[in-house]
Please model this.
Amino acid sequence: MEAPIPAENTNAPIRDNDGPRINEDIKAKQVRLIDETGQNRGVVSIKEALAIADNAGLDLIEISPQTNPPVCKVLDFGKYKYEIQKRKNEAKKNQKVVNIKELKLRPAIDVHDYEVKLKQAKKFLSQGDKVKFTMRYKGRELSANNMGKEILDKIVEDLDTVGKVDSAAKLEGKQMSMIISPL
Model:
């Protein structure tokens, strides 16, 4: 028969392992304390800091553990976690995800097909996406790969108003690829 598991304090905030240390988890003997009003109380003992936090009905949170002594703040832990999550979401919302669109070509491409690919590339670049041009070679076309290089150079020339070369054309096996990013 297993030993019973002791009941935990259900009012105590649950701390993530990657989050800041709170209340009794703080191991330092002395801390630099910032109280609930935001005033610096200076260096105090951990017991005194915990008593101040307890009197305010809030938690003692280790804000900067790498300093000596660590900086602790008297805050509501739930509100603190909410503010951090809110900042993370705001940063995530402001970042731009860049997609890479791929356009595949052949060395013997017709004029109309080339113009269609060019139009698609301009559309992708205007939307803020990068465009990867892949020139595929079959059979003996590989021995005359300068034809494909000339077409990729013409693409760079035609797209110089809307994009710039991110990585120049290079031959990898049976295909030559190049990436163009928007200006």
Q: What stands out?
A: The helical segments are 46-56, 77-94, 111-126, 146-158.
